[in-house]
Amino acid sequence: MDWQTTTDVVPASIVSDARALTMAGRAPATGAWREGDPVGERRFVNIGDVPLESGQTLPGARIAYEQWGTLSPRGDNAILVLHALTGDSHVIGSARPGHPSSGWWPGVVGPGLPIDTDRYFVVAPNVLGGCQGSTGPASLAPDGVEWGARLPFLTIRDQVRAQLAFAERLGIERFAAVVGGSMGAMHVLEWAIMAPEAVERIAVLAAPSATTADQMALNSVQLEAIRSDPGFRGGDYYDAPDGEGPTRGLSLARRMAMLNYRTAAELNARFERSWQSGLDPLGGGGRFAVESYLDFHGNKFTRRFDANSYLVLTEAMNSHDVGRGRGSVAAALGEVTAASLVLGIDSDRYFSLEGQVEVAAALRHSVHGSDPVVLHSEYGHDAFLIEHAAVGAALRTLLAA
Question: Is 376 noted as a catalytic residue in this protein?
Fold first, then answer.
């Protein structure tokens, strides 16, 4: 879920970038896209009121999205790409006004690539509850004030219900494939169960059938880091008089999350016990390189994300359980009719391979049999965002089915 996977960052460049962030001044209270900001490549669709599992209704919702390619006259070449926790609709493309970072899947989506935009009409929405144009905590509620902590609790199924309304507004009745990784893969599974008639193929990358207690425990520490920041102000920080938001808490949550997304082997090999300056950390005057690496990514994250959205989306992930109210996980997945690809990562310490094994065993129409495609990688959970060749090969097999 570390959608900015800087595999080529070395300690010296981290120092340079960290200094640049410092020179840029204090981080804003939120890194959310706000009304009046440059639109960039975004498009917007109003989907109306969204009924929620809680019994509440989210009124007047909007979905921001990006698209590539051309929808065929028969409407049979659409692919829906769903992002992970800290991603958004900017799947490909450079950083530019309105898009603080470059696209997160440049080796997988594009002309001639596995998800070929010369062949397919590719659509990528920002998830409901997100912070890059879709209705979320930083959006204005009907009273003209940001939703903040007042935004109703959202589940993965609520977000898919919003995506279904979004597809209806676009006039897409059936997707050739629905593809996603991590949180996005949770949405993929719900698409296949909630709207089987609308899905021909699914790709479930690095996600379980249900969030486990261990995963929720890891998430809970990150949530507490945000809520305990004095700048959080109960979620009402958008117009704080001092301009301070919960940036320290959000940065700390990001640092903790990155330890879930990568592996001990990678960090040890990359940084060893090196430090960032001429001062030895053992003397109290310097910093170890791995500390600076985490600091840099935590601080950078606060400039493109919103703390309230981080809470909303993480809690939605905690709600994930395809078996809830459906008898069991096996019963729910056994009803999936779409051709399926399940991909797991052998070094993933966040959503372990065991979860993908369970999913693959329960799906009846897997292109790889009853076992998942296993990606061997040193990068851990983030491998689905980094190992473009291996992930792309698996997607090509699915799309040929």
Answer: no
d(CA 287, CA 274): 9
Instruction: Give pLDDT tens digits for 82-127.
Output: 999 999 999 999 999 999 999 999 999 999 999 999 999 999 999 9
Burial (CB count <10 Å: 0-12, 13-18, 19+), residue 60: middle
H-helix or E-strand containing 315? helix 307-318
Per the structure, how many domains does the chain have?
1
Q: Is residue 92 part of a domain?
A: yes
Answer whether 215's CB lies under 8 Å from 350's CB: yes
| Domain residue limits at 261 | 11-400
Categorize the per-residue pLDDT at 19 as very low, low, confident or very high, splitting at 50, 70 and 90: very low
Whether residue 381 lies in the annotated active site: yes
| Threshold 0.90, pTM exceeds | yes
pLDDT, one tens digit per residue, over 315-331 is 999 999 999 999 999 99
**Residue 101 located in a structural domain:** yes
**306, 348, 352, 382: which is the annotated catalytic residue?**
348
Strand-strand pairing, 373-375 and 109-110 = unpaired
CATH of the domain at 183: 3.40.50.1820
Annotation marks residue 182 as catalytic: yes
